Amino acid sequence: MLPIEDNAPFTEQIAGHVERVEQFIANNESINMVLPAFPAKSPNRTKTLGFLPDKGEFYAFERLVNLCKQIESIYEPGAKVIICSDGRVFADIIHVTDSHVSQYVNTLRQYAARHYPNYFEFFNLEDIFDKVDDFTVLREELMIRYGESLSDLRQRVKNEKEASTMYKGITRFMLEDFSGIDKFSDYSRTALQKVAKTAAYRVIQRSNAWSRLLKDHLPEALRLSIHPQYLVSEKIGISLVSQTDVWTTPWHSVLVKDNTSYQLMPREQAEKLGCVLVFNEGRASHFERIHRGAE
Fold first, then answer.
1. DSSP letter at 273?
2. Which of 27, 145, 156, 157, by CA, is between 20 and 30 Å from 197?
């Protein structure tokens, strides 16, 4: 768990989660864990290698499988992660095409089926509104059914610590992403910050609607989050790659291997450090840091 505070009794921290786990155990079922994540690659190529998944996502999958195996070692039915890819939910806001979202998610599905067939399921917007081919209509339908007003969200960001922390984190990501997109190349820093703040509210608004939909359709599953959570929360914060940077994700960065450790950083930073780009099956995969001995 990745906490933002540490002053709550442990029994209070685990209360809501234990009830769900106990229900799975009572039915001798695999423990289902819902993870809204793996949306699409950031379109800012100073941060990422391309629009398809790379070693960053695949390493995160490995860590999620290790979590499932730890549970399996003490509870035979084990656990599985339901990846609820949310790229479709806000693709238009983050300036990623729906085609790239589809290719990104389909590549993840194929990789999981090939390497970890027993540990992952996938769930996205099309699985709910499967008779609608227009993705814009899908997003509108999501907000009609599960959305909150922008004024209510702004009020929560103003008054609630958790909402405020989320808003600041998403704004930072939006600012970083937009600063490397050609569409915004002529924007001043002030103008770009304004765009990022507006986009952050819209991303959170849709992300919250997606969370409500998941709660409706997968009510019994444990709720995981890639973002830090308060210790008393309906979600459990987890780290996909690094414990030192709990906000950076594989889809906003590249993976850098340094001897036996891994970390995430913007592509631009990895290149400035002189890291070597590694290819796998003809595609850019990750970077490796080379340590040269004294001459």
1. T
2. 145
